[in-house]
From TrEMBL:
Transmembrane segments: 7-27, 47-67, 79-100, 138-156, 162-180, 187-206
This protein's UniProt keywords: Membrane, Transmembrane, Transmembrane helix
Membrane found in the keyword field: yes
Listed name of the protein: DUF4386 family protein
Length: 228
């Protein structure tokens, strides 16, 4: 398999990026509203956007690499190609959305606060619609979560530990979406706290370590014992 090293390094970096994102967000507790937060914590939140933008690009590499490792096992599956495309769309939107916000959030939030009054009120009300391309996380969290769960089905005979991590991590991403939809914050806290801070980074970094091994991760029965 070609470029396994690039895919492995990318997977480790994706795990690190998810971890860093959650840590930085936790260090920037929400205030009165998102506009004020983007003025108060501008440097931290801009850093988050750059990290997530890079994560989206690296995530596409990881999806393509893992898909090649499972090529023989998924070649007769009608569902897997759809889940792969969903994950690529999810990571691509994550990159587009966050790189877009690096050039939008700073100017919009500062101009709104400077103008004050009705302008500030209007920007606060419309903030999510103005800056977010996937406000509830359907695409950037939900699509990636569905792909992680799908991959974990095929990973079960290769590495049970990796499979279980993938099931939990993907489910946490879906819980985050459900929490955003329903407004039930405990679901978001579980999804991002357990998933984003621990399980999802661990899953991607674990993938990266296996992809860097020689021979590379594959579905050949002869190497099942090597990667348990």
């Amino acid at each position: 398999m070609k470029k396994t090293r690039l895919g492995g390094i990318s997977a480790i970096l994706v795990g690190i990026c998810y971890l860093l994102t959650v840590i930085v967000v936790l260090l920037s507790p929400p205030g009165e509203n998102a506009v004020i937060d983007h003025v108060t914590y501008m440097n931290q939140l801009m850093l988050v956007h750059y990290i997530l933008g890079a994560l989206g690009i690296l995530g596409i590499m990881v999806v393509l690499t893992i898909s090649r490792t499972l090529e023989n096992q998924t070649k007769n599956s009608e569902w897997y190609p759809y889940s792969q495309v969903m994950a690529i769309i999810g990571f691509a939107l994550l990159a587009i959305n966050n790189f877009r916000q690096t050039g939008l959030d700073h100017e919009l939030s500062h101009d709104a606060v400077h103008a004050g009054g009705a302008v500030l009120d209007a920007v606060v009300i419309g903030w999510v619609g103005l800056v977010e391309l996937s406000p509830q996380g359907w695409i950037d969290f939900g699509f990636v979560g569905i792909w992680m769960i799908t991959v974990s089905v095929y990973y079960f005979k290769i590495s049970k530990n990796l499979s279980v991590l993938g099931f939990i991590g993907g489910s946490c991403f879906i819980l985050t979406v459900l929490g955003n939809i329903t407004g039930f914050s405990p679901l978001v806290m579980i999804g991002m706290g357990v998933g984003g801070l621990v399980i999802v980074p661990a899953w991607f970094m674990y993938n990266g370590v296996l992809l860097l091994k020689k021979p590379p991760l594959s579905i050949s029965p002869s190497i099942h014992g090597d990667i348990e």
